[in-house]
Amino acid sequence: MRPPEETGNEVPFSPPQDSLRGVTLVSDPVGPWRTLTTDVPYRGRRLRVHSDQVLNPSGARIGYDWVETDDQVRVAALVADRILVVEQHHYLVGPLLQLPGGRVEPNEEVLTSAKRELAEETGYRGGRWTSRGWLYPLPGLTKMRVHLWMVRNPRPGTPSLEPGEHDLRVHEIPIAEAAAAVAAGRVRCAPSAALILLAAGPR
Fold it and tell me: Given this model, what pLDDT does residue 149 score?
């Protein structure tokens, strides 16, 4: 099932029902966990650390630390039969191959963030945009989501890199080669890997 093309409002991507093999997720948004107390011992520019006291599913009271931070976006930009992949050295993990993307700024629409990040990192603008849903990359540590977007036939232009991105390099590679890089373990950004495989799948 193809998700609808987007003009502004995000529609989460839903896989075909038969791909779930009969598995049904529990619909209760609260579930068996219960929050007793919460504290925020650290507030930084990019994140807040929460320290909660909770009842876990067994009924035991435990401490649970978690991180609140802004959502992110990743963009699969398709130019003919090629996809834009960026190569960048990250302070914490070193060099990565990944798709263009970054932070959703406060009070910014997710689609606006995706378009801004693509233009800043690659110079590409315009095209036909489609939401491919979102992922929780670290559900035990943070509620932060990574929103996945696909754009077809954007127009090239001049990038506007941030100071920490001046080592960033943009590659245009065949989609099949990008999918093979995922299978070979060369794309270690998990949302980028998932979105590349979606882009390589049936249209």
Answer: 98
> How far is C-alpha 14 from the chain's CA centre?
16
Q: 15-19, 47-51, 181-185 — which is least confidently predicted? A: 15-19
Nearest by Cα to 167 from 83, 96, 79, 118: 96
Cα three-residue angle 78-178-5, rounded to 5 degrees: 30
Contact at 8 Å (CB) between 96 and 186?
no
Burial 128-154 (b: 16+ CB within 10 A, else e): ebbbbbbbeeeeeeeebbbbbbbbbeb
Report the predicted TM-score, pTM, of the whole model to 2 decimal places. 0.85
Q: Dmax of the chain from CA atoms? A: 57
> What does DSSP assign to residue 20?
G
Task: For residue 26, name the pLDDT band (cuts at 50, 70, 90).
Answer: low
Residue-level pLDDT at 164: 86
CA distance 197 to 13: 14
Quick one: residue 140, left, alpha or beta (phi over 0 = left, psi -120 to 50 = alpha)?
A: alpha
Tell me the domain boundaries of the chain: 34-68, 70-200
Q: Could you say which of 3.90.79.10, 3.30.420.40, 3.40.50.300, 3.10.20.30 is the CATH number of the domain covering 70-200?
A: 3.90.79.10
> Which segment of 14-23, 135-144, 164-173 scores lowest on mean pLDDT?
14-23
The runs of H, that is alpha helices, within 32-186 are: 110-122, 175-183
